[in-house]
Amino acid sequence: MVLCFEDYMLDFPDGVFANRMRYQIGQSHWLLSDNEKATLWLKKIVDSGQGDDGFYVYVAKQRMENLDKR
């Protein structure tokens, strides 16, 4: 998935699906209890939002607040 995401970003640097893919990658790490990598990907979503709390920014913030809850 990460390789697919990297290819996507090369072809579409401002792609509208970037945060959706970042969230899926972060969620996958969270499900594997890899909170460090999950946090890395979730922060990328928040940073890319540039102050705009869209859907994926909102859910990324919620997931980071609840990383230890499964």
Tell me what you see in this structure:
- The protein has 70 residues and is mainly alpha-helical.
- The protein has one domain (2-11, 18-65).
- Helix content is 71%, strand content 0%.
- It is built from 4 helices and no strands.
- α1 (2-11) runs antiparallel to α2, α2 runs antiparallel to α3 and α3 (35-49) packs antiparallel against α4 (55-65).
- It is flat.
Any idea how many domains? 1
Report the average pLDDT across residues: 92
- Report the structural category: mainly alpha
Evaluate the radius of gyration. 12 Å
Helical fraction? over 70%
- Outline the low-pLDDT stretches: none
Biggest β-sheet: count, sense, barrel?
none
Count of distinct strands: 0
Distance between the termini: 23 Å
The backbone outline, from C-alpha atoms, is flat
Percentage of residues in DSSP E strands: under 5%
Helix count equals 4
Give me the strand/helix succession.
HHHH
Entry summary:
The chain is an all-alpha fold and 70 residues long.
Short descriptors:
70 residues, mainly alpha, 4 helices, flat
Topology:
Blueprint: H1 2-11, H2 18-31, H3 35-49, H4 55-65
